[in-house]
């Protein structure tokens, strides 16, 4: 069953995502990042320019864009939908924003990081997702980022 970690009060999603990506990289884990196109584009750009001495391999796929088979080993997948992510990617980072629904297909991942913004609409949507997961018996943990 998927282990779900809620990271709440995240004022700077890009900074928080980079921290989680570095942690996953250090652990040798593969990760999919699910979110809106504009934020995924910013993350992709940051992965190219974050550290000039260190390339962070990643793949940015648009909605409905299939990856080539030679790309399957890529450690970081930036996607708008989960269908293209290989089955052996074990972690999902969900940048839901104001979306109250759980991402379809999340249960195939060993771990889900649900990132909740600091604004009231994101907090409300995060509470709704928490309830959804709790009602279905998922193991939940809360990690407040707002001090």
From TrEMBL:
Molecular-function annotations in GO: DNA binding; DNA-directed DNA polymerase activity
Transmembrane segments: none
InterPro entries (UniProt xref): DNA_pol3_chi (IPR007459), PolIII_chi_sf (IPR036768)
Name of the featured protein: DNA polymerase III subunit chi
Any coiled-coil regions, as ranges: none
GO BP annotations listed: DNA replication; positive regulation of DNA-templated DNA replication initiation
Cross-referenced Pfam families: DNA_pol3_chi
